[in-house]
Design brief:
By secondary structure, the protein is of the alpha+beta class. The protein has a single domain, classed as Ribosomal Protein S8, Chain: A, domain 1. The chain contains two helices and two strands; from the N terminus they run αββα. A two-stranded antiparallel ribbon has the order 1-2. The termini are far apart.
Length: 62
């Protein structure tokens, strides 16, 4: 029952890119893998640390 609610609840969050039942050795159908979108602030910190100016090509404005 909880898994059914989870399947309806997770798509409501823009941060959730995908989800799927876990493999047997990770808990099987009692566990769920969730792929989360990285926050823009975190992306900016990585770009800064790597010396990149932006994630957009120079010809893209905005």
């Amino acid at each position: 029952m909880i898994k059914r609610y989870l399947a309806r609840w997770l798509p409501l969050f823009k941060e959730v890119m995908a989800f799927h039942s876990a493999q047997g050795f990770h808990g099987g159908t009692g566990a769920v893998y969730v792929l989360l979108r990285k926050a823009e602030k975190a992306k900016d910190r990585v770009r800064e640390r790597l010396g990149l100016t932006s994630g957009k090509p120079d010809f893209v404005k905005g």
